[in-house]
Amino acid sequence: MSIVSIITPSHNSTQFISETIQSVLSQSISDWEMIIVDDCSTDKSVEVIQSFVEQDSRIKLIRLSVNSGAAVARNTAIEAAQGRYIAFLDSDDLWLPDKLEKQLAFMQVDNYPFTYAAYDKIDENGQVFGLIGVPDRVCYSDLLKMCSIGCLTAIYDTEYFGKVTMPLIRKRQDFGLWLKLLKKTEYAYGLNETLAQYRVRTDSISANKANAAKFTWRLYREVEGMNVFKASYYFSHYAVRGLLRTKAPGLARMLGVLK
């Protein structure tokens, strides 16, 4: 039984999946399993992933028979996971070599059951162009106002929570999972040290922001069950903070929106 199960959904990821897997293979600790769930790719992703599976038994591939979206792919991996800790890494993102070692030590010293970390933003060529810092801790209501937990850095402890899966929505399902976890514990704790790299794709960045806003509203209303007034309250915080982070990062830092 591995100490960490790494959850990786994959769909048409040929361009980046090798680099993603290599970032896991380069970890300074070796006691992990990586469960990649392919969501009906039509490119050569499966062949690329399979080549790694054949070389390293810690890497496992599950293939979905019907294209089902990232929530189903991630939940399939969570259900198959054997590790105590559940970590997340998408098929185009990267971990720095000491990511697991440092974050697990951070968790174990103070028995934190749910943690996250700072990360860089990189472009499609792997060039760093931004840093996303994180608050020291967040509670449920904090997170509703701004999701400050990057999926590629999140880890939770199944000995504390059991296995907890993502809500079955097409987008923002990771946000939904963090909220589920924070209903079971008071805080998630942040390690404000860069441990990962989030790849920003050039395709439809503005459309992605619009989609994120739409699905955030749906998350408040349909998953969290908020009435329209409560949802509007949290959505206004989400919208203003998101705008500050994008358009006025200096002011955002002054207000504590950015670290």
Judging by the overall fold, what is the CATH architecture?
A: Alpha-Beta Complex
Number of strands: 10
Number of H/I helices: 10
Helix and strand content put the structural class at alpha/beta
- Which fold does the CATH topology refer to? Spore Coat Polysaccharide Biosynthesis Protein SpsA, Chain A
The portion of residues forming beta strands comes to 15-25%
Q: Please give the domain count.
A: 1
What share of residues is helical? 40-55%
Q: What oligomeric arrangement do these chains adopt? A: single chain
Descriptive overview:
One of its GO terms (molecular function) is hexosyltransferase activity. Keywords: Transferase. Pfam families: Glycos_transf_2. This protein is an alpha/beta fold and 259 residues long. The protein has a single domain, classed as Spore Coat Polysaccharide Biosynthesis Protein SpsA, Chain A, CATH 3.90.550.10. It contains ten helices and ten strands. It has helices at residues 17-25, 45-55, 70-80, 99-109, 140-145, 158-161, 173-182, 205-223, 228-247, 249-255; strands spanning 4-10, 32-38, 59-63, 85-88, 94-95, 114-122, 128-132, 137-138, 155-157, 188-199. Strands 1, 2, 3, 4, 5, 6, 7, 8, 9 and 10 form a ten-stranded mixed β-sheet that branches. Strand 6 (114-122) and strand 7 (128-132) form a beta hairpin. The radius of gyration is 18 Å and the shape is globular. Mean pLDDT is 91; it is low at 247-259.
